[in-house]
């Protein structure tokens, strides 16, 4: 049976999509041409999963839920009636493909209402698969899916007996990047040490440690590190308000924060203010206060980096830093692990219990235990690049062999055939 497989993406970064469309003046493209340009630029996984499954005999399609321009264009190309909500238009596009299998990028890809509507409208739908990379508060939402793919062992172990069908599959590296980019020789890479990504979360909730670590590294004048930081408008608001805040005498700053804590209104101010913990178990309301984007504070060049530009940056970097979100307590599991190693850069990553499920921490990556250990190892490996190059190559070989989307597509195909 020729199975139709639909991958529904939700990237949660409208600014990336809008920035790409604006810079390349893509507003007048048809929905098909716009989709092709966006997937060719390799946002996140791009369409690598469906391309690999297509090679295995599936009929495939990708739809990006938060690419409003493409979905609106598709509807205009196929229907004359404009009196539809965006969700209704999206539903029409999904129904038009009539999939047997839908793979949801994460649990928030579609609203529960739209998900239930899909199940009623799609008579040929046999399997709803969802990828889950973080814990969710409402476990009942899992009941809406036929298969849950958990992305790290700790979450899988916690939930496997609470879901009807679940598996553990790590993220992976988009193997089609190798068709687009040549692996750059290690000694020709221009960036010695780099971090690329968001230095803090949207509301500064999930990356406090990352922000603290990067700030400490940037303060160390002996380390030559570049930072590619994705910044949103909310973070810039907090940057300017924090500049005003720093004009307030210190005694009143602490008084102000204590009042917020006592009245339990800190969350209401979270768009602008959030304290940081020193992860060496000290706490200081003022010193680790969030003051806005690090590139602004340290007078560094700021750039929005995503897709092929991200891969190009990593391919031109000798040492790449990986600092996980606080949502992952004891595991390493983000997609950046495979992007870094897949591009032949030497990855520095937290020393957590599952690291050796993926890489040999003595030969294929460099692990660190805390900020002091990270700074020491950046200094050592920056001055011993022959050792660093060997580790980078070994990590690259491991990812190319075991951790590509092609590998994961083979595993997903086996699981699908067991369930259908």
Helix content: 40-55%
Radius of gyration: 23 Å
Overall form? globular
Structural class: alpha/beta
Query: Beta fraction of the residues?
Result: 5-15%
The oligomeric status of these chains comes to: single chain
Number of strand segments:
13
Query: How many helices in DSSP terms?
Result: 18
In angstroms, what separates the terminal alpha carbons?
A: 10 Å
Arithmetic mean of pLDDT: 88
The largest sheet has its strands arranged as 2-1-3-4-5-6
**Largest beta-sheet details:** 6 strands, parallel
Show unreliable segments: 268-288
Briefly, what is this?
The protein has helices spanning 14-23, 31-40, 48-54, 68-78, 86-97, 112-121, 153-159, 177-180, 208-219, 233-245, 250-262, 294-297, 307-315, 336-342, 355-358, 371-382, 385-402, 405-419; strands spanning 4-9, 59-64, 101-104, 127-132, 147-150, 166-168, 191-197, 225-229, 277-278, 282-283, 317-321, 346-350, 366-368. The protein is α/β, with parallel strands linked by helices and 420 residues long.
Question: Can you put this structure into words, describing what you see?
Answer:
The chain has 18 helices and 13 strands. It is α/β, with parallel strands linked by helices. The strands form 3 sheets. It has a 6-stranded parallel beta sheet with strand order 2-1-3-4-5-6, sandwiched between helices. A 5-stranded parallel beta sheet has the order 8-7-11-12-13, sandwiched between helices. A hairpin with a 3-residue loop joins strand 9 and strand 10. The termini are close together.
Keywords, please?
alpha/beta; 6-stranded parallel beta sheet; 5-stranded parallel beta sheet; globular
